[in-house]
Design a protein that fits this description.
957 residues, mainly alpha, 47 helices, three-stranded antiparallel beta sheet, five-stranded parallel beta sheet, 5% strand
Length: 957
Amino acid sequence: MSSGLPARLVGREAELAVLRDAIAQLRAGTGGVVVVEGEPGIGKSSLVAAAVAVGQESGCTVLHATADQAAHPLPLRLLCDCLEIKQRANDARRAEMLRFARAERPDLLVSSAVHAAMIEMLLTLVEDDCATAPTMMVLDDVQWADDASLDVCRRLASTAAHLPLLLVLSFRPVPRGSGMRQLRAALRGHATTTISLGPLGPDAIRDLLSDVAGAPPGPALVELAAQASGNPLYVRELVESLVREGGVTVGEHADLRETSLCTVRRSLAAALDSRLSFVRADALDILRVAALLGREFAVGEVAAVLGRSTIDISDDLQEAVAAGILVDAGTRMAFRHPLIRQALYDGMPTALRVALHQDAARALDGIGGVEPQRVAQQLLESGRVGDRWARRWLARTAPVLAVRAPRLAAELMDRELEHGVADQRDRAAFSAALAQILIGAGEHEKAAGRARQALAVSGEPADRGRMYWVLARALFSGGDNDAAVATLEQALEEDLPDAWRARLLGSLAMFQRAGSGALEAADATARRALETGESAGDTFAIAYALTDLWLTHSVQRQYLSALDCVDRALETLNATDDHADLRCYALHARIFTLQNLSRWSDAEAALRDARQFLLDDDRTDDARFSVTAAVLTYWLGQWDDTLAELESVDQSVSAMTYRGLRERGPIWLWHGLAALIAVRRDDRAAAEGHLRAGLRQPPVTVADRENTDFLLFAQALSAEQHGDPHLALSHLGGLLTREPGEMTLIHQWLPTVVRLALAVDDDSAAAAALAACRAEAAAEQVPARATAAANWCTGLYERDPAPLRSAMEHYRAVGVPVELAGTVEDLAVVLAEHGNTGESKRLIGEALDLYGGFGAVWDIRRAEARLRRHGIRSGVRGARTKRPAHGWDALTPTEHKIALLVAAGRSTSDIAQSMFLTRRTTQTHISHILAKLGMRSRVEIAREAFNRDPAAIPTDL
């Protein structure tokens, strides 16, 4: 092994060094006490064995014994074994002690008088041994020792420092009888060195896997071993089980076979189940029920399934926590090791598990406030189909479940439909709900098929209106816009309720614009939808039509009118608790419009309001708002926060889809933002990966094009970065014009088009970009972003500082640093061309400081190169010092705030709420903090924060 340690000790170098130091002090005549503690399987015995070997090598007298896990251990058995009373019967003192013990009771030493005498003789024997040579007494698994042995340990601990005696005690957190509690208390009162064994790190686990499997581990094996949470015993049990069952292939690397792990899991369950024998039977029964509920569970859930009170089960749960089986997870508890949970789960007979899952579903449904997905998960795990109660529950809960856990809802509904739902109305409802979920999952063809099935068995006009709605959405999302429009037109010929006519008209308006860019037709249809919706008094239809009108106004750059429409839509929706998806869409729209009006601080406030709504509606991990927040923070120069928002997003189609409202989610936008930051930070590998992924699927509709502009801009800057400005300019050619009905804000990219065109002496391309930007500005209802961009383009093209100054002051006043940095750079270049080197040098310094704040190292190099052509060098500026990669100073401002909140004891949910983040984004920040600080837990973050700046830690809890 690379560490030079035996395989079983890899990753324990620091702990063994502590023991070596204690042994070295013993040889010098100074004794003491070392405690080695940790959960079962964490490596205590291996470390103790290594310490014994080191002690023997050092020339000390080494005495070693392990306590017996017997129901009624013999009194003083541990100490007698350690001091080798029987084994060294030729030693006069030991022979006398053995005769004394046997004289009273040959079999068991139970007399209190004998105990007292034996204890004194044992203590005297230890003192005599220490007088002969420095002595090391190593007692392993002390938690199983009898009380008399524990009493001797307490007394030895109090005298060890006065003798050349090193007392090494190893024990688990449980069991904790009265004798162990007294011993622990006594050890705290002496100069005791405690070694608390935590989980092994990733490198040590890889070395351990190599040792067990016979070759360096492959990625699948490493990922599976991570379920052991760093416990070396569990890693060994897992891999040895896999090797026995032929589940590992060994070549250049050892990795999993592409076969089922069911057989391995059964074998592993049996192996690990024996490791839980130290837990009381009652506690094990509770843990098995908890295992049914998943990795995490609420205490009330376990109590409900058991039909007991939380007080009744609290002692058993506390024992499981002390044993390291369970850990605190905020308002919930969790299994520390997924493998232990799996072992408990797989250890139950299949028939029992099925019945318990079914009972758990009913019990959870009876608890107020339990999320429906918890009940649904139990129904799914039960494997039962056609249960009357389960089907009634699913029919009642389907609308909510489809929003909160769409894939889970889809699997349950699909299973029931395949089994056969006799009631036609239930079958239609299940089919329609399943179709809508499949749309979100990107399975559009299946969604359309289910929607058609629902239409075939549905006779109620309102139900048919809903089915048409879903079918049209499935067709549009699948790329068949003409079929979607035809479906809506066919539906509108039927005798449907006005509410559904209004909703279908709203969808028709959306598809007319998004599919083919028919803006005038979409606007007229939206107004019909609004009129019909108001006549029907349908809140959803009214708000939906208003968002349609918001869209048509936005395309025409009538942002004040667009803002009025979206505010009216939100006001309408505020009158009801329904239609959360439409409200989310309207909140997105409002943030977008405020940015277009250059009201950046208002846009930030709107994002906070939106996330408060998500919190109130229990939708705090809505991925769409993470993308919206990422766009906003990009322009505000908070690029680390942008990346954290993007990293928190599940990159699936379902995570970024406006269900039933408009076009598919912005996958292109996700990759475009990530690629653009990577390019500007000169992370070429990351940029290439995102560009490749984003460009894999070409845009088809107008709505698709609207999400590709960040990606195209990143592609252009990457080409320029690689020294090909002509290619860069060609990539941006598609941004010079908008397709009919297209929303894309082309003005935000056109200054770069002008700069690149002038750099390659393409005056016609530069003039075209300037004309396009001026057209955008002229269309604005009030001067805003496009107007500032037009001034920027004008100053560049005409080499005129005045319009550039106007753009610069606008960006400075509204607080948008990314656009400010670019304008300041270009103004510095133009001033240098005019010979104004003094002001040019001052401005380029400001630009470089701004770029440094974003981490835009490539922008810095480009700007410096442009100014060097005019003889201007920026010099070294302190504000541009690169943030270190590791340590406390590596934390971003957001990470620093979160670290302080972690130190204050705030949960992830509390932090997310107070900082207007999603839980996933908050957890992403915490993961970054742990990585930068080289830590493994929130406790370590808290300790570092208290050491650094205790006064900054919030106390208003």
